[in-house]
Structures are given as structure tokens and as C-alpha cells.
Amino acid sequence: MERENELVGAVGFSVMTIRPGDTTLAIGIGDLPIVATSYFVNLIESAALTAISEFLEAGETTRLLRVELDAIDAVGIGAEIRATAKCSALNGRELTFECDIYEGERHIVHAIMKRAAVERVSFLARTAAQSFSSLKPLN
Asked: InterPro entries, alphabetically (predicted)?
């Protein structure tokens, strides 16, 4: 990562309008037409990547390690929600983000997310090798 001393404090934003297919009802994990929690995670991940994109070196990216998410309120179809993600700590290759999602002034989600910086090619090669070695022979 470049300019690591500037990375802590970097902020990113992301916006999403809830569509019918984004609901718990549509994806089969509930019976309410409210946004599915997985979309909250997608939105804060997008905001986090926006926050740090200028600090990543060529061939470098991040992957999700952990999310602690508090769903404070729910939103329905047609709602426009916006996420913020602020890089609050850097420990080696691990980044911590403080994340929030709002609909207008209404606070919907608070989350703490941890991501690991990885070199893209070696990470994908290692992942492919691990997946290949876990395959069972067809008999």
C-alpha cells in the first residue's frame, strides 16, 4: 500500500436504490419486502473499496475478513440508502473500517469491517491451488 500514513482516516461512499429483487422475500430468506442484510454488506464493502482505492498499489486488492453488523432499522423497495466507510486502523495488512448506512437522516446500519490487503495474482493462485487440492477423485 502506498502512503500508509494517509490511509487511516480515508473515507468512501456508496449509494443504492432498493429494487424488488433486493428484498428478503425475493431471495427467499424471509417473508418481508425489506432489503436483505447481504446488500448492506455489499454496500459497505463498496464504500470501503472506494475509500482506499487510491492507496492500493498495482496488482493489490483487499478481501473481506469479518463484518460485525448492527441492523438498526429496515428499509423497503424504492428507498435510496447511502453508505460511508472510514478506515479507522491499519495493522500490518489488515484494515479496519467504521461503516454506517443511512436513508436520508435515518440511521439504518452500523458496522465494523476488517479487510486484508493481498497481492491479487498470488492470492488467486493460492486459492486455486487450495481448491484443486481439496477436490475428491471421481471413482
From this structure: FlK (IPR025540), FlK-like_dom (IPR054485), HotDog_dom_sf (IPR029069)
